[in-house]
Amino acid sequence: MSMPGEQKISIITCFLNAELYIRETIESVLQQDYRSWELILVDDGSADKSTAIAKEFAATYPNCIIYLEHKNHINKGASASRNMGIQKASGTLIAFLDADDTWHPDLLSNLANLMYQHGAAMVCEASEYWYDWNDSGRKNEIVFIGAEQDRLYRPPQLMLSLYPLNKGAAPCICGMLVRKEIADKYGAFDESFGGMYDDQTFLAKFYLHEEVFISSSCKNRYRQRPGSLVHMSHQKGSYLQERKRFLIWLKDYIKNNNIHFPEVNVLLHRALLPYKFSWQLRHVLPGKIKLALKKFYRSIK
User: Fold this and answer.
1) What would the pLDDT profile of 141-167 be if each residue is shown by its tens digit?
2) What's the rounded Cα separation, in Å, for the pair 42 and 24?
3) What is the rounded distance in angstroms from the CA atom of residue 297 to the CA atom of residue 299?
């Protein structure tokens, strides 16, 4: 295995109308102490100044920053945009940095060293949930991945411990490093998920097939803001249906790929159960059973 300093890292940043944040994001890449990288900026149909900002950086740093867009500058969603970046990538390792998040200067060097040390297909670290960028009265919170820290996991251990099948906090996309050949092997991101759960389809493939190292380090900032996908999903009341669509996708993926982990099937069945009873819960079941099912449903969200 090559030493980490010899491996080029391709950083994928897809963006849509991110003029308020993208400059800070790109500058955090330029400040990395790991020097063997390329930054691929994928424009997902922006209509604000973020397009001009991205092109400006690509023109200023032509040897390491690349600007891409979909044909006719259309919007295709985060999964298609990340896949476009992966296809263009020339590095052996892939990192993802959304256009409103930032990295500490030593994030890439730290994750690359961990990958070299442990031989994992993916390395993930904790994330700082970043509130005080616009709310000085609210403290930031470091959220550790919801499994024992600083150890290597084999399939399907993380599928059993982490969201969305269990309560452990999932990795944020800005806090992971993956091997490109492995991402290519499993088809990277499922493009039927344009926003919500796009990262979970990607993570599930690694949890079910490959070894993943979980680190207690935290060298990324995950910006919390009202316009984010998760916030908008809850606001529109679409979160539960999007979760259901992911669970059905996961069930089909396991079946279609002949994956045999009975303990995963048990958790998946449990997660789908409230949806099977949704009609009865609203129209048929007596009050006490309704209340019990509601409590059960809340316990697995």
Assistant:
1) 999 999 999 999 999 999 999 999 999
2) 16
3) 5
With a CB cutoff of 8 Å and minimum separation 6, the contacts of 42 are: 12, 13, 14, 15, 68, 69, 81, 82, 84, 85
DSSP state of 14: E
Q: Reduced to 3 states, what is the DSSP secondary structure of residue 240?
A: helix
CB 25 within 8 A of CB 13: yes
| Orientation angle between helical segments 239-256 and 229-236, nearest 10 degrees | 110
Classify residue 5 by its DSSP letter. Answer: G
CB atoms within 10 A of CB 266: 12
φ/ψ (deg, to 5) at 39? -110, 120
Cβ atoms of 10 and 94 closer than 8 Å: yes
* Separation between Cα atoms, residue 299 and residue 291, nearest integer Å: 12
H/E stretch holding 247: helix 239-256
- pLDDT digits over 206-257, tens only? 999 999 999 999 999 999 977 555 544 445 557 889 999 999 999 999 999 9
Range list of β-strands (E), the chain: 9-15, 37-43, 65-69, 93-96, 102-103, 122-124, 127-130, 141-143, 151-153, 176-179, 212-214, 220-223
**Whether the predicted model's global pTM rises above the 0.90 cut:** no
Given 3.90.550.10, 3.40.50.150, 3.40.640.10, 3.40.50.300, which CATH number is that of 4-226? Answer: 3.90.550.10
Position 74, amino acid: I
What is the C-alpha separation between 127 and 161, in angstroms, rounded? 18
Residues 148, 145: Cα–Cα separation, whole Å: 8
The angle, 0 to 180 degrees and rounded to 10, between the axes of the packed helices 262-276 and 287-300 is: 130
Cis check: omega of the bond before 156, within 30 degrees of 0 = yes
**φ, ψ dihedrals at 48, nearest 5°:** -115, -160
> What are the sequence ranges of the domains in the chain?
4-226, 239-300
